[in-house]
Every structure is written in C-alpha cells, then in structure tokens.
C-alpha cells in the first residue's frame, strides 16, 4: 500500500482535482465527504468521462465523474485478497480503510512490487517520473 491519502470534496472541480494530482505526482484522489469515502477519481476519469465528453472541467465536480462507492480493503488484508478484488471488479487501485478512515491506496504497482520485485511493472513503478518530455 502507498500510505497517506489525498482527497477532494465531492463538490471540488475537476481542475482542482487535476492540479492536486499534478502537485502530488499521483493519478488518483479519493472523493470524501468528511471522513466518508464516497468515490475514487482517476486522471483517466477526468479525461475519458469528462473532458472527452465535452464537460467543462472548471464547473464539473469530482463527485459527478468519480467511481462511486469504491471497493476497499483493510490494512491487514492480504496481497492475494487485494489482487482478487482488483480482478473481480476490474479496478487498478483500492482505497485502504482502517476503521472506516482512509489510510492509503493499494495499486497494481504496489502488488507488483510485493509479489515480484524484479518484474517489469515493479521496475517501472520504482522509476522516477519523467520530466514531461515525451519521446526523449
């Protein structure tokens, strides 16, 4: 699991969520109403569900685009249980809740690192982010 949680309110604009993702160098944020996780918003959700459909990212809310009621795991759940949930629900990230409070996110990259640290996916996951220059 990647510890720590980055979250936005359901009424936050997609621009606000995207800027937070950029600042934190992440591809997802939880959508939370107080301590209650109400959704998961990914960079793909913003581009495919909103921008590609012509929605205005300044006025469209995170709550309107996120995947509601995300599948979650607990910090004590096994890697195999997390992988099975990802497979069953066709998701790449799972919020980690402890006592109903978000404490982290487990991703495919986290599973790759835990199960096969020498795999290509694990190597890519450990790599530093690029400097924004595609193809160099």
UniProtKB/TrEMBL annotation:
The keyword Transcription regulation does not apply. Residues 116-136 are annotated as: Disordered. SMART domains: CBS. Keywords: CBS domain. Residues 1-58, 66-124 form the CBS domain. Coiled coil: none annotated. SUPFAM superfamilies: CBS-domain pair. InterPro entries: CBS_dom, CBS_dom_sf, Diverse_CBS-Domain. Gene3D superfamilies: CBS-domain. This is Oxidoreductase.
